[in-house]
Design a protein that fits this description.
The protein is mainly alpha-helical. The protein has one domain (2-306). Helices cover 71% and strands 0% of the residues. Helix 2 (21-27) packs antiparallel against helix 11 and helix 4 runs antiparallel to helix 13 (275-306). The two termini are 20 Å apart. 46% of the residues are buried.
Length: 307
């Protein structure tokens, strides 16, 4: 239960920026934090119940099929503890590497790393060319016409709900790894209540320090930009979800998407390009990913040594 609690808090706090970050950034001045909290909680409840009922009591959506349940030891808590510490520094760590790898074999770890690197590269390439096209049609800095604002606001909420569902089907495994593979109805209710409380704290803090990853990027506080980012990210996650059941780092996919978009906006909106301005931002995000991966591998090796 201690491991589950630490993993649950750390995963919610660190990975919130991927799914809810742009939504929070573009709606925090329009809606009360508890309104968004209730909406996100309803989608989360529906997702967990759906996964539990269609996978024989397993809320991980089959992501743990290749990682059998094992007796939890004290050193398994090192991973979520490190994740909490890195989150407080605003570092976007891969929770899949840090948490799941503590339970997985080196073979599965290698598969996770390969899939995550592919995810980062594909997300960067897709978002780069997509935003080159988008920037040629619209300027995301231009305000939306008043008559179109209700459409974009409504579309964003539906898009965020779809993304939140898709992300949960990937990353809830990072928390469920501390639980039995088949949960009873009482255990499911306990997990749901824990998530609701964690989400409430997240929205009250408006995403926390990790939210700066989103706020540093251009126009992410605008509803149209946030909606397009969320839609592309959700479709990418859906593609990798259907590819196979090997867990992957959704953080790498998200950062790759933002980096590709940032490169496109700084080379497509200006004739001469502005690559010197965007390079420090992209390099800083990639450095944080590398730091997170290094810490993850170190802890995993330590755990396997203790084991």
């Amino acid at each position: 239960m201690i491991g589950f609690g630490l993993a649950g808090y750390s995963v919610i706090a660190n990975d919130s920026v991927q799914t809810l970050g742009t939504w929070i950034a573009s709606n925090r001045e329009k809606f009360k934090w508890y309104t968004m909290w209730i909406a996100a909680s309803l989608v989360m409840i529906g997702t967990l119940i759906y996964g539990w009922s269609t996978n024989g009591g397993d809320i991980s959506f089959g992501r743990l099929d290749k990682i059998p349940f094992q007796e939890i030891q004290w050193y398994h808590a090192l991973a979520p503890l490190a994740l909490i510490a890195l989150t407080q520094r605003g570092i976007p760590v891969s929770t899949s590497f840090l948490v799941l790898s503590a339970f997985a074999s080196t073979f599965i770890l290698e598969k996770m790393l390969i899939k995550s690197v592919i995810g980062y590269g594909l997300a960067a390439i897709v978002s780069y060319f997509l935003w080159l096209l988008i920037s040629g049609v619209i300027n995301e800095k231009d305000d939306i016409k008043e008559k179109n604002k209700p459409f974009w606001r409504t579309f964003q909420w539906f898009t965020t709900g779809f993304l939140w569902f898709t992300w949960l089907s990937h990353d809830v495994a990072n928390i469920a790894v501390f639980l039995p593979r088949e949960l009873s109805i009482v255990q499911l209710i306990g997990v749901i209540l824990f998530f609701i409380i964690g989400l409430g704290f997240l929205f009250y803090k408006q995403g926390g320090k990790i939210q700066k990853i989103v706020l540093d990027k251009q126009n992410t506080k605008y509803v149209r930009s946030a909606t397009m980012i969320d839609m592309v990210y959700a479709l990418l996650l859906l593609y990798f979800k259907e590819m196979n059941n090997i867990p992957m780092s959704t953080t790498w996919v998200f950062v790759g998407l933002l980096c590709g978009r940032e490169l496109a906006l700084n080379t497509g909106l200006t004739k001469k390009g502005n690559i010197k301005q965007v390079f420090p931002i992209v390099a800083k995000d990639f450095l944080k990913l590398f730091i997170g991966l290094t810490v993850s591998v170190t802890i995993v090796l330590l755990i396997h040594f203790l084991n």
